[in-house]
Amino acid sequence: MRSFSLLRWALALLTAGPALAQTPAPNAIRAVKCGRLLDVRTGRIVANGVVLVQGETILQAGANLPIPAGAEVIDLGNALVLPGLIDAHTHLLQNYRPELGGDDNNMLLTVATLSTARRALLGAAMGREDLEAGITTVRDLGNSGHNGDVALRDAIAKGEVVGPRIVASTRALAAAGGQFGQLTPAAQALVAQEYVAISGVEEARRAVRQALYDGADCIKVIVNTDPRVVSLAEMKVIVEEAHREGRPVAAHAIGDEATRIAAEAGVNSIEHAYTVPDDVLKMMAAKKIFLVPTDYPAEFYTSAFPAPASATPEQRQQYQQGAQGFAAGNNKRLARAVKAGVRIAAGSDEYYQVPGKTRGQSSLQMFRAYAAAGLSPLEIIRAATLNGAELLGLKDKIGALAPGMAADLIAVEGDPLADITALEQVRFVMKGGKVVKNELRPK
Length: 443
Ligand SMILES: [Zn+2]
What we know:
globular, 2 domains, TIM Barrel, alpha/beta
């Protein structure tokens, strides 16, 4: 089969993609120069920043560092450089369309019409949009078909697809029916693509072991979809099995009962918690359980999910007030959580196509909600860097610009410490030492 081998070799030369061709030589040193460098640990901005990168990692970051002879210099002018952002809660393999209805309609159409392979390709597009907006790492929390998130994670890690680092959960564990509303028996067969139904502690244990076998980096549990709730005994076994292998547990929980079960079981993060009592917040602070507040400003909800064309003016007003009330309630609970000492990791929970915005651009709107709840810009940046890295179990690899860490860095022209929306205009992205985007080339 020699001729076949030759043909393959010739084809490989012709089709080698730019992503693979751009892989930096392992020993090549690059110097990223910037007017301002943000140290997210101290909260200080230093002038004349330099980040020395070798291969995929950071050698050194600081002010006025000498640039080694022969190093390639990437001059970002007066831009401000900070670590790549981390979205601790997203769903790359879902991109629902509001005009098709709510979650149930979209979820059914997705599982009935898109194969996992097709969804992985959708995820590649969503991941690219996240990365170009400055999100260099995501934790993908389910609704990915049968392990489509693992396939995408591995393809990105191998450089076959350009995208963010992915921490994958595989299918979420849930009570019967997952997050679907009532379905016919025939349609219920589709639920298994999205959720592993558990009932009883041994099923919970088996589901975690299956997730580990499937390649999960973390475990996602839907603690409640009213009136179905995963019990405390089941949650404890899930946490025990996951923690034995060092995998964090993310719990979708809303309301008194579910958030308390999640906190008592000792999960690593509680997602959403749109309503959560004070004693649970206290327990979360004591146990160092992160809150991932998947919040947006009211304008986000009304632009992403506009009222139907047939709505009367009164209905429109009600709709507007509903969005404002929801956002205001979320702001209050986030402020209560911060006051109680609960640590925050940023998470968008983005899975709808927002008109006129890429996936990354719409995800970053979450920062506006955090600001409205009273978080300072530095607290928000830490939620999306240091805290996210710790929650994902990657604090030695990402979330800060320090020697030995992955060279994941982004740059903006504005001052995000004065106005957090400056992060919505990321002009330069480097992930793992590779430049993904650079709109700051000297003119
Ligand atoms: Zn979610």
